[in-house]
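From the shared-data thread, chain only:
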Amino acid sequence: MTSALPFDDFRNLLDSLPAADLKAEARVRTLLAKADKPVNSLGRVEDIAAWLAAWSGRAPPAVTRPLMAVFAGNHGVVRHGISTRPVAATANAVELCAAGGAAINQICIANDLGLKVFDLALHIPTSDITEDAALDERGCAATMAFGMEAIAGGTDLLCLGDLGVGNSTVGAALFAALLGGRGADWIGPGSGADAAMQARKAKVIDAALAFHGHHLEDPLEALRRVGGREFAAIAGAILAARMQQIPVLLDGFAATAAAAVLHAANPAALDHCLLASLSPEPAHARAAEHLGLRPLLDLGIGHGEGAGAALAAGLVKAAALTSSGMAAAVRG
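Structure, as tokens:
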């Protein structure tokens, strides 16, 4: 960071986002229109192919180096009894991924995806958002910058997911801060919360909103105050992908909340993103609609780990191959 304040560089990036390659998008749509099939008969598959072309600049598009990036963080607010799982479950899930035994490992193998899982200082949970900012500005900016490194080594499709005990509550707090409402408007069962626990989740969010007050009017301040490390890293990864013209698949409630931060700062910030699937969290569909994100899949996946994005990546790869194969036939 070279500016006076840690967030300044991110604000500058959000003010200068690259646009889509409309010529590449139009070429794909033209090729598909000329193909030997009924007009628009492939439905959203054609839209996905055009989206890939627009955000990769390749027509027809190709997906040869897809990457699944999962960011794991822990939250101090868990001390209020807002999750059915202990904090240690986050590290256990990361270890299972490292051992190859998690669901995400199998889905990545099935769809030939690279996999990176990032442990974001799990031994140091963020501060309790009801009485302090989750992160200071420097720490939040550094975590966003770390998330930007997810694309290091190259990728042409970035899939983003999360792990974090209590992060459905934190995600709900972010949605409330960014989109309005109270805790009860955004909470859900998460990993299995009963009615009493959901009431605690709503109370915690309301306390956090009251404590941070008008500071939450700034999206990046909301991120650092009521968010967490995985949210900051995902926001950074989305932004880095945009600057490098890399299409993004988002997965789950937490990743959508992280994306909402960027959307609040610049409504065009998510144009290179598709939502893989909706989680069972009741408010996820409402948030997605507000952000203009229409899910590709509806499988009821609330597992985390980016499972929905990894599954949707198979669909995106198929759309790219469909486009390129039919384009070759048209040229022939």
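The longest strand covers residues 66-72.
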